[in-house]
Write a structure and sequence with these properties.
Elements: E1 2-15, E2 19-23, E3 26-32, H1 39-51, E4 55-56, E5 62-64, E6 72-77, H2 99-117, E7 122-123, E8 130-145
Parallel strand pairs: 3-6, 6-7
Antiparallel strand pairs: 1-2, 1-3, 1-8, 4-5
Amino acid sequence: MRAVLQRVAKAQVTANQTHVQTIGHGLVVLLGITHDDTKDELLWLVNKITNMRIFNDENGVMNKSVLDVGGELLVVSQFTLFAQTKKGNRPSYIDAAGHDIAVPLYELFLEKATAVMEKPVRCGIFGADMQIDLVNDGPVTIIIDSKNKDL
């Protein structure tokens, strides 16, 4: 799994021109899922995201997590995070998981993140055409890949 985290002052996703989800201060999580991702990797990633100390403390030092600051999460599925760009100018998405693998893991990610956050996690609609409006805070953008973790 790959996740791109963007610390935001506020954000909104609109899916299929009707489904609108908004958050205030928190994180937008763009989530990519590949063929061999596991539940263990998913749990590791949820823990990593919710405990990542990328919010400022009272001294202006990034020393607090989204949990510590009472922030919110907006999770959007993004298969393009697994784009292969080595050959030519047209990306290949062969490494992105198909719906049969990705949808259950995406839904489980939302479930586990909601449990950890102890409040609703906002989200887009898997596979939908979506527009995201956000106000970067910092800006702070972090990329996490579950295949590159040290256990």
